[in-house]
């Protein structure tokens, strides 16, 4: 595997203004992120109500203590590789039973100039609909928060990029934001039509013609819901949250799949996805859902790396047994094992 695949023009990486300070928190120990500023050509944010400004790029992610380190690294990578970091607004979703105030303060501490809001997600509504999957982590109610973004985020926000917490972006996120969702398309994501789509649902589904006819006349392909461009305006008009919930209710009554939040999305949107270049989701770097194994990058250009699967780079790095691709995640990590570590030392 060659790191050359990840090289981007130096001009696309914004410089920081001053040496970051070390921050120590009750959960983990982080250093303050470098402060990234807009290039001169960036649109000016002028609205009094910032979140509704049409020049903003909206990014949604979940936030919890278990995956916080990944979320922080993902945010850092987004800011580092965009020409207009001040024009990005982050929407973080945290569970009702999490330490909401502490998570909010931690983000402010690490990214003092970041525009963001933390929303409380009441997992009770979805918890009663969740059926057990092949990996316990997939049963976390927060894993289903992406289904409710249209309800959680302000109505003036009509478009959002959803990112999982185990991703790193090595390109300008404005390129992903600018992708058109044509016609009635509501979601844009890389599709993988070589994968056997039938394996994502069991015989209970395929043998029931009333259920399986949902794909009649369509050519559905597998897509990963960890990276999506979403039209929240169309989503709200079509009431797609309810449509996904209905499939989850069917799953409760008659088990038709084994994975977590992915199959309901495939049932509702399969065959109607706006295909995006595969460079925007080099997924599977964490192995599969059962085995923590090392994977190599797929051939071709890379804009986003995704450690979907059981293995996470921060865990393998701390264990002293990282996979080669984990070393590509490490430069964006703002966590420090001790207060003596500095961001400057890490960059060297």
Task: Tell me about the largest β-sheet.
Answer: 7 strands, mixed
Residue share in helices?
25-40%
**Low-confidence blocks of residues:** 1-27, 343-348
Please state the structural category: alpha/beta
Overall pLDDT, averaged?
Answer: 86
Number of helices: 13
Backbone CA Rg: 20 Å
Tally of strands: 13
Q: Into which percentage range does the β-strand content fall?
A: 5-15%
Q: Label the overall shape.
A: globular
The SSE string, one letter per element, is: EEEHEHEHHEEHEEHHEEHHHEEHHH
Give the N-terminus to C-terminus distance in angstroms.
Answer: 22 Å
Q: Tell me the strand order in the biggest sheet.
A: 5-4-3-6-11-8-12
Would you spell out the secondary-structure blueprint of this structure?
Layout: E1 22-24, E2 29-31, E3 57-62, H1 68-80, E4 88-95, H2 100-110, E5 115-121, H3 124-127, H4 149-152, E6 159-163, E7 167-169, H5 173-177, E8 187-189, E9 191-192, H6 203-206, H7 209-212, E10 222-223, E11 227-231, H8 232-238, H9 240-253, H10 262-269, E12 274-275, E13 304-306, H11 313-318, H12 326-329, H13 343-347
Parallel strand pairs: 3-4, 3-6, 4-5, 8-12
Antiparallel strand pairs: 1-2, 6-11, 7-13, 8-11, 9-10
Helix pairs in contact: 9-10
What would you say this structure looks like, in words?
Helix content is 26%, strand content 15%. The two termini are 22 Å apart. It is of the alpha/beta class and 348 residues long. It is globular. Its EC number is 2.4.1.-. It comes from Anisodus acutangulus. It is a single-pass type II membrane protein.
